[in-house]
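Troubleshooting log. The previous run stalled partway through. Resubmitting the same two chains, unchanged.
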Amino acid sequence: MTAPLLEVRALSTGYGRTPVLHDISIELGQHRRIGLIGPNGHGKTTLLRAISGLIAPWSGDILLGGTSIVGAQPAQIVAEGLVHVAQANALFPHMTVQENLRLGAYNKRARAKSDETLERVYELFPALRERRRQECRTLSGGERQMVSIGAALMAQPEILMLDEPTLGLSPKLKKELCSAIERICESGVPTIVVEQDINFMLRLTDYFYLINQGQVTAEFHADQSLDNRQIMDMYLGLD
Amino acid sequence: MDWIDSILAAAQPILVSGIVLASLYALMATGLALVWNTLGIFNFSHGVFMTLGAYIAWQFADARGYGLGLSIGIAISVAALAGLGVLFNRLLIAPFLGRKDIVLVAVMTTLAGAFFLENSALLTWGPRIKQLERILPGNIKLMGTAISLHEFLIIVLAPLVLLALWAFLKWTRPGSAIRAVGQNRDSALLLGIRVNAIYALTFAISAALAGGAGVLLGAIRFITPTMGTEPLLKAFIVVILGGLGSFGGTIVSAYLVGFMEAISTFFFGAYWTQAVMFGLFIVILVVLPRGLKGRD
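Second attempt completed without errors. Output:
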């Protein structure tokens, strides 16, 4: 049996001395599109930050294709193809859209294909092509989010982690962004998505974990005929 | 209208001496600003980097040192300073990165480093003043004012060096990485940029610029262990006045400060110039709290 693409085993970590995650385990492999839901402030973002090497685990293990990446530098993890789009990320505000995107292809693996991928990103987000010479700080929230996702695609992800990609966007922009994200997911890149919009999440993922108080308190197949209310009940601990 | 004539007569020498000062400040201040923009710390060793640049060049170039000639002395000096920058970053900054009080810690560690190097320079080269040979001998008349060709070279060289630095930051991969790290460290990490390597590179470039400024200044002023102190102070004024975070603002501000200093020296004398400079500095910051082109 081959190892899962990504496996988090009994991971605990936090900030300073404050614990956030307790013995959390998730797996990406059998299900290639997984989702994390749960109330704000319960550790979803922290989990992604630990996976991408921004914060060190206190205990437990993170395995990428069966090999532990605990202690690896973020740059090494990106070079392995695990790419993380952070929440409400403005990337580099005083650089142009195109400069931001080009920086996505910073790692060696991505550099060779950077022209080709840039073209693909512009096809996915035509608004960015128009604004390619504009500084990022002049963009709207939705356009910035497109730049963040575009830069992640430039890095040639083999696994893509998206942290609340539609946070704070207007319904119209959100729809546009959602369809772009669906196209990315359907293109076959395995994804881990954190999202508050449960309907969007159900379309986007095969399997999802409910994270509460830094632990996985439930996990589901997206095709289990759950309705919104049942999920909301679990979300709020009413079940 | 005698006073108009006298001002007009004074304008040319003021302009010339201002532009020489400004060029040196621009070189010093850009290095300081580069480290501030990228790492978010002020490097108080920047002045002593300048001093060491002059001493090391003298050591290799001068007949009383190793006598290898000026060009070899300059090349070794600039390379050595780049190496020293990397070392300082490794020893004095890198161990404390990620701390919330990094700005204050860096003030203390880089001040300590500055004292250490200043006294090392005193022990190594002694208190006797030294001077570097001029890169170009002879004089030239510029706008009716005679200046040395060396000073003329400073005026021409500084903008070229700054232009090269700008092009490097704008058009090359490591250059964009330096800007990216300064604007958003976490995102840079998540895109696979080796942030610690970028910090080391930034320090190397900054220290090499200071060393280069030392080499240029060491031929028109005397080389002493404290020769970098005053330029460091001026570079601070320039960077803050220009607006933190703005490369263009720093350069504009360097030329402004250079000219203001020349004007003040001419009318009030060197003795009052420091006071006048800081007075103007305070006034400008009251009117424009973020400096000329500051960012958040």
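Takeaways: Chain B is about 75% helix and 5% strand. Chain B touches chain A through 17 residues (CB under 8 Å).
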